[in-house]
Amino acid sequence: MLAGVGRRIRAVRALQRGYAMHPAVQAAIARFPDRGHAIEELSRIDDSFMSLCEDFAAAQAALVHWERSGSPVQTARCAEYRELVRDLAAEIAAELDRNT
After folding, report:
1. How confident is the model at residue 12, as a pLDDT?
2. Residue 11's closest CA among 19, 3, 23, 2?
3. Would you say 82 and 63 are in contact if contact means Cβ atoms under 8 Å apart?
4. Smallest Cα–Cα separation from 53: which of 83, 23, 82?
5. How many angstroms separate the CA atoms of 70 and 19, rounded?
6. Which end of the chain is more exposed for a tag (fewer CB within 10 A), N or C?
7. How does pLDDT run across 37-95, given as a tens digit for each residue?
8. Cα–Cα distance between 78 and 31 in angstroms, integer?
């Protein structure tokens, strides 16, 4: 419970400083909420990690698109993007493990 309060306090302070978190970082934190601080820090100092977060967010957005699609290839594309999202999440976790 206290960890959640701490995250909210950091978020309020960030807003007060005018800091807007990158949507890709938000997507990664939504997937790994208990590692939010590490994700924020690593994304600030490691361009390749930030790029990985951007790929993850884009894959999630594509998955949502295909889930809402009425296309005849919807099922196949959803399966492909689910796998991509899963693989990218695993890469994010591995990078966090290596760097924290």
Report:
1. 52
2. 19
3. yes
4. 23
5. 38
6. N
7. 999 999 999 999 999 999 999 999 999 999 999 999 999 999 999 999 999 999 999 99
8. 18
pLDDT score for 39: 96
| Cα dihedral 100→88→86→44 (10° resolution) | 50
Please give the structure tokens belonging to residue 66: 């295909």
Q: Could you tell me the sign of the dihedral formed by the alpha carbons of 12, 37, 60, 54, in that order?
A: positive
Instruction: Return the HEC string of 8-56.
Output: HHHHHHHHHCCCCCCHHHHHHHHHCHHHHHHHHHHHHHCHHHHHHHHHH
Residue 75: helix, strand or coil by DSSP?
A: helix
Distance CA 30, CA 27 (A): 5
Residue-wise pLDDT for 4-27, tens only, equals: 555 555 555 555 444 568 999 999
Sequence ranges of the domains in the chain: 22-99
Note the pLDDT of residue 11: 56
